[in-house]
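Entry 14. Two folds queued back to back today. First construct below, sequence then structure tokens.
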Amino acid sequence: MADIAGTLVLAQNQHALIQDNTKGTVQVYAGPHALALSNNDRPVIYNKDKDEFVTVTLPEAIKQNPSVPEGHYLILENPTPEDSNGGIKTPKGGANSPIDLQVGRKINIPGPTSFPLWPGQFAQAVPGHHLRSNQYLIVRVYNADQANANRPDFLSIPADKKLNNGHLLIIKCTDVPFFIPPTGFEVLKENNIYVREALTLERLEYCILLDEDGNKRYERGPKVVFPEATENFISKNENDATGQRSASRKFKAVDLNDQMGLFIKIVADYTDEETDKEYTAGNEIFITGKEQRIYYQRPEHSIIEYYDPTKGFNRQKYYGITIPKGEARYVLDKVAGEIQTVVGPKIFLPNPVHQVIVRRILDTKTVKLWYPSNIEALTFNESLRGLADSSTSYLTDNVVTAAAADISRNINRGTKGSTLLGASETLAGDKISRSGKFTPPPMLTLSTKYDGVPSINIWTGYAVQVVNKSGGRRIVIGPATVLLDYDESLEVLELSTGNPKNTDTLHRDVYLRVDNNLVSDTIRIETKDLVNVDVKVSYRVNFLREHQEKWFNVENYVKFLCDHLRSHLKAKGKSVSVKEIIENSAKLIRDVVLGEKTADNTKRSRLFTENGMEVYDVEVLSVNIADEKISNLLKNAQQKAVESTIALAANEQTLEATRRQVEINSEIAELETTLRLRKEELARQENESKAETTMAALKTELENMTTRMQAEVDKQEQRNAIAQSEFERLKVTEGFNLEQEASRVKFFEAKMKAITPDLVAAMQALGNAEMATRLTTAIAPLAIAEQTGLVTTLERVFAGTPMANIFDNLQHNNTVKK
């Protein structure tokens, strides 16, 4: 340190430069040393940038000796001549006079070392360069003689090849893990860093290195890529995970499947090592997943990019388009100029080398014909025309309009800093991320309604004729869906309108109704009595399938039909009167249009062989007389006839009502008589039933009494038998008197013989009399109540019954007795 008095005090490993103002020489003082400065001494330091000595204060002039620890090296500029020969001449302790220096030269001195510097020298201590397996250094030769003399053994340059100034070398970790450059070599810095990072490529990654001669080198992972000294990594700026722009030097290989592809321009001849196929510069190829699932770019390939205005960037990868079932796309062959139709369902990937998808633009009239009342289709085609008029070639992926006459392309030639392939992936290494929420499956929304081939939906009962520019045609009957080829269109019919039909306003249509078609017309017919009659008719028309090739032969089938039938009806009208037409219009018109009825009642119709049209029915809607006077006369006559008819019908109804009323009254009388007779019959049957019941009861009673009497007779016979036995016993045992006993026997036999049918009848009469007595006792109150005789009451009660005889006998007996 220097004190206030101007004394220079240098410690160990310190030095200072002092200039003599009288001589101009600059001496170096090395410590340890102390010096009292005079007025002619001036402390200075060496300014490397200005290459001059600058006056400073005494404390500022004291400098530490460069200290180079082990593993470091010192870059010494402006060395002494001795230093260049391997030795190091350094200032000693105390004052040292200046010596000659090799200005502009520099040497590398490995540590450990420390020494003061001569005036005009500059030194920089640099740590030795440790290299990992993916690090390297770029070394430049600045002194060829020293470099050749001190060249390391690990250099890959042959020993007989001399190093030249400016020669650049790559020092890799595989060469030496620790490097201190010898004199003649200097390590270049990048972004103020000596050690550079090589590029580690993982599987499915690659990098591109651009040499100063314009050649490129493509390296694939997994490997560590070290550039040559004259090579640079081609990088792409992209947003990292934090949203900052950063350069990426490695790229992902392109993953392709059957529905993806890359459009390639061959920029140099080469032969594919795997297939031995030769490729010529200038040709174009299209690589899809079918040929190569994983694509690595080669130096002979240049990606053809198309600018997509809808997405705002250059599109490199081509994707297949979805063609749903019932839809199609137009594909233009750029070589043959032919447009083909690709029908779905399929995923279609056009080959851009010779194919491009074309979108067909329909004019307003065609849209209105093919898609009646479809505002959406009309608006869409108008938008397409607007895009085509503005010379916009690309509307959607891989699609151009038919109005686009050329295809612009941008071929990236792979210059430095350019993008040869799509944006690199931001993922570094394999990662698996799982969310706490359910991840739905991938979904695809298709909106292809108007993207492809015009689709014509034909309803049931309709038909169209599809024609092409080659003269071909085909009939399509609904229900069906037609996908039109690019040169195909629909036959247009121009149909008469109005009533009566005329050609003032024609209705243009492409859909022909072939089933249950309805055509109406009004015809003015002049009758044989010169009266004009307007007949409004409605024809029912079918187009026969067996004549379908003729359906569109007549452009205006409505006019053809109406004119033809109108002439027939007018001719028929000349032969009939107006009265006949008014009264029998339906039959007359049907006979003219459909033909006369046949004996077997065959179905009537009229066939037009010109276009296969058949009129199978006709309806007369109205018949009006054009002359108002005649019309009024007919109306009045008809009115009177109707009035007479109505009056006659009313009288007939009255007569019929009266006749019906008489019939009803007669039927009522007959029913009442039948009812009365039926009631009497039922009463008679009821009385007979009651009498039969009474007689049955009396018969039962008589039978019971007869049974009892017979029982008594049987008992008596038994008694007789007993008596006979007793008689015989008495006769034998007791010896009765024969005469007495004989007399008794005779008496008994006489008594028994007295029991004859008359006796039985008498006994029965006695029983009846007993029964009559009982009945008399029962009926007596009734006879008293009626104030008639008892017998009379009994006769009335039992009139018509078997008991009546009994009471007649009783009355007769009473009369005789009196």
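Second construct, same run, same settings:
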Amino acid sequence: MRLSTVILPIHRWGEGQRVWRRAEELGFHAAYTYDHLSWRSFRDRPWFGAVPTLTAAATATHTIRLGTMVTSPNFRHPVTLAKELMTLDDVSEGRLTVGIGAGGTGFDATALGQEPWTPRERADRFGEFVPLLDRLLRDEVTTHQGTYYSATEARMLPGCVQRPRLPLFVAATGPRGLRLAAEYGQGWITYGDPRGPREVPAALAPDVVATQLGRLEEACAAVDRDPATLEKVLLEGSTQERPLDSFDAFVDYAGRYAELGVTEIVLHWPVPDSVFDTDMAVFERIATEALAQLPGGTEPPLGLA
């Protein structure tokens, strides 16, 4: 089991760099940030760009992995995104992990002036987005003509520091997304039931993830892949569970999901006066002591640096 955090891009860098350095000092495996133009209750609050934030974080830290949680086609094109990610992988000296998803219907889903996409169109776009991004990050030159995304002699030199490319973690709960995770992902991400916290009592939340893990195994079997070769990442904060209320509550929470096969839990860095308001002392104790209470401790499951 690994423990990571997601730091919202809400801080002016004078303060933000201290937060990212503190995440490294606390021993988190990775620190991610949301790749949105705005987000829900933070819509009218400060919110900075994900890639510049991660680039700055890469220069302010040394060992912690960095990444998006998650980026999507809502306002990204694979060609320009791949160039930015290749650059960020270089700046971070190979510490980048990219979480990608089909995107939602939030405030920034139509920020470029497009009409809202139907669920089917969103899935169709993601089905093109992931394979093209995979090719761009692997190959020096890519040409592709698609329905939604194309590339003409798109050059990615010198390529990723991590070979054959930086790792992609695919956020998915439906069959098409799970298939993409099985085919292209080094990891899979879930935040629980996509219907939202009001729909599922806290006691049933682990059952939802267990069902998703079963479907992921089926998707892996369909492409002849061993599901044990994927990281299984759980993003905390979108269910009725309250694992950050106390140290013991988190240990119980992490233990339940470790038994299901989750290999990494991502906790939201505390933000006062928000949905992520958490006692910092409890949070830091969880970061430094909780995994030692679990069977297997902090031993990395797949050997990802």
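Quick look at the second one. Residues 2-293 form a domain with the TIM Barrel fold (CATH 3.20.20.30). The first strand starts at residue 2 and ends at 6.
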